[in-house]
Amino acid sequence: MIYPLLLVGAAAFAPGSLLSQSRVAHGGASSAMMVAAPTAVKPVVIGIAADSGCGKSTFMRRLTSIFGGESKLLDIGRETNTLVSDMTTVICLDDYHKYDRTGRAENKITALHKDCQLWDKMAADVTDLKAGKTVSKPIYNHITGALDPDEEVSPTPIVIFEGLHPMHDERVNDALDLTVYLDITDEVKFAWKAQRDIAERGATMEDVQAAIDSRKPDFAAYVEPQKAKADIVIQVLFSDLVDDKTGKFLKVKLIQKKGITVPPAFLFDEGASTTWVPNPDKLTTSTPGVKFASYEDDWFGSPVSVLEMDGKVENLEEMIYVESQLCNTGTKFYGEMTEEITKNSDAPGSENGTGLFQTICSFKIREAFEAISA
After folding, report:
1. How far is CA 149 from the centre of its chain?
2. Which domains does the chain have, with CATH numbers?
3. pTM of the complete model
């Protein structure tokens, strides 16, 4: 029997995670568009959520890299957002938009609003894939802004749904076994968007602010609340080591809910409050350097274990020194974390905590997969 891992693009730290008992149940109604009977593949469901432009695609690249195999677009002979490899399928939750680009404009609704999503179809597809069934799912064409004809998607050992907010619907939430939320603070989000839109799209600072402000109410209402539910949160803030508002230097936190099947990663001594400034002879950094921390905290009323990295490392091969000080990272051999980080060295954030913690989070997802399929 093959037990696939289904990663759903959303975040939810709900108390009954696979990693707690209640989420292991398959539950949910069958999709009316189911096109195949159940197979021997029984996916584990994992949700990953974040706002647009917050690094979901980079995270997916690191995650699928750990499971191996070439990842490419599903071969349907036309535009698709679905990525597949021997082990993984990545489904973009934008495909469940109710309206096309014109329809959103006519209805004066953003893609973040709850009324812009096909919740019934999303819930049916998640539960059917979890049950090992092939589904016929919609496609949102990012190039034309149109809703294209459906595509057939079959479960693989790992199926990933990434996107804005499948966790808003409790039927989907109940099907998830482990959840992750990418929490980019407003200040960092503005800096990242400004760099991209001004350089690539000729936007002004006022254009960038207006675009963010137009999405903020729906983001706050329907996307951001998921971070209170998530099992793992990767939070990105400006650095405390230097006064830099460009996003060049960052402080990143790996916030891990306690009491789930996957144990939290920590620095040196589990449960201790630890701050570590690495030996500069063993780690090449530029001004202002780099600092790590590990401590216990509270996250929306739940106990969590937190890892922090502030600053960046210039020579990624030297991350082996950092790896040697970390515990419970989920690696299978010494050096695997450094190997994965250097393998994806050209991915954004590889030199700072986003690369480090997305990599550790990927190992935690692998741990969850192996624990459930055991």
Report:
1. 27
2. 5-181 (3.40.50.300), 231-351 (no CATH)
3. 0.87
